């Protein structure tokens, strides 16, 4: 199963991706998570990415495409029958075209582009209340998805943190960038008959139920 998750910052991509990946046993590949891991390890890629991420801008296409191409050649993707769930990639038409070429080399294509629709005014509240576990990347929300003990990950007891790019000003920039550079992908995938629009305003469990209905018929 090959899926990409589309949607603005804070739409719930990471939240749904965790569940989809566990249920359908396909690797969850989040370009944002890969960049954050590189930033926290201070790698050359992390240093470059930080210049852009801190300002709410996209990391340049060449850097992202090479990184994803490399990730998609790893064993977990191959042993899932070239299966993957991409979260946060593609984000530009250039990236979408690159993905299509990567797939073509393996003689396969995408099953769906799942687009989580959430109005922009809701996104800021979602993102400013988000807390993340640095150990397992689980995502919580101070109001909508509280951990059992405030500020602590349910799964491994690690203290949660807030992302640096989740400050309101940076979030606004990320939303502008989304509108300019990523929203055109909805039409791109519509033209390829791949798009599935899901109402991301629902409770997160209902969003997942909708996604399962769509995926139930796919291998
Ligand atoms: P990335 O990490 O991909 O960030 P994003 O796309 O901005 O998305 P978010 O992680 O903010 O939100 P989400 O949709 O995953 O929402 P979540 O599930 O956490 O990218 C970060 C940066 O890296 C980019 O700005 C860019 O600089 C760079 N980058 C990454 N990929 C790139 C690429 N391909 N090309 C170039 N640059 C790239 O949910 C949000 C909150 O809401 C959580 O607290 C959650 O608990 C809560 N929530 C979720 N669902 C619901 C619900 N249904 N109801 C109520 N609350 C909910
Ligand atoms: Zn954790």
Automatic annotation (TrEMBL):
Residues binding Zn(2+), per UniProt: 133, 136, 153, 156
PROSITE patterns reported in the protein's UniProt record: ADENYLATE_KINASE (PS00113)
Substrates-to-products reaction catalysed: AMP + ATP = 2 ADP
Region (NMP): 30-59
A cellular component annotation (GO) from this entry: cytoplasm
Superkingdom in the source lineage: Bacteria
Pfam family for this entry, one: ADK
Stretches assigned to the Adenylate kinase active site lid domain: 130-165
Subcellular location(s) per record: Cytoplasm
Keyword Endoplasmic reticulum in annotation: no
Residues holding ATP: 10-15, 130, 139-140, 202
Function as written in the Swiss-Prot or TrEMBL entry: Catalyzes the reversible transfer of the terminal phosphate group between ATP and AMP. Plays an important role in cellular energy homeostasis and in adenine nucleotide metabolism.
PANTHER family: NUCLEOTIDE KINASE
Protein name, per record: Adenylate kinase
Organism the protein comes from: Acetobacterium woodii (strain ATCC 29683 / DSM 1030 / JCM 2381 / KCTC 1655 / WB1)
The encoding gene: adk
